[in-house]
Specification:
The chain has 105 residues and is of the alpha+beta class. The protein is built from 3 helices and 4 strands; from the N terminus they run E-H-E-E-H-H-E. A 4-stranded antiparallel sheet has the order 2-3-1-4. This is Stress responsive A/B Barrel Domain.
Length: 105
């Protein structure tokens, strides 16, 4: 099992309803692809210390579970992902950082 954990940070504040829609559409896209074994999406829980983050503050975190590196590579080309990214980048530009790793603990 390989996990792909992605942190999403929108360039400007995004309304909670829009963030909820982003996460819902992302989850539907990846779970409907047949390429992932699991998917978890959550909004970031803001705390006062976020004001002192040295790089960025997340708006959301996403974790995909895939069988192996071949499945992970295939997930980057899943049908519809390019359109999803382009549509959301046009509405609410964002940046993402991710880590590919074995399950933690």
């Amino acid at each position: 099992m390989i996990h792909h954990t992605m942190i999403v940070a929108f360039d400007r504040p995004i309304p909670p309803s829009e963030l909820e829609q982003y996460l819902k559409e992302f989850e539907e896209l990846v779970t409907g692809s047949g390429l992932v074994d699991s998917c978890a999406v959550r909004p970031h829980l803001r705390v006062p210390g976020d004001d002192h983050a040295p790089v960025a503050v997340a708006d959301a975190i996403v974790r995909l579970g895939v069988a192996d590196l071949d499945a992970l590579n295939a997930s980057f080309a899943m049908p519809g992902v390019g359109e999803f990214v382009a549509r959301w980048q046009a509405r609410h530009p964002y940046k993402a950082i991710w880590a590919n790793h074995e399950p933690l603990s």
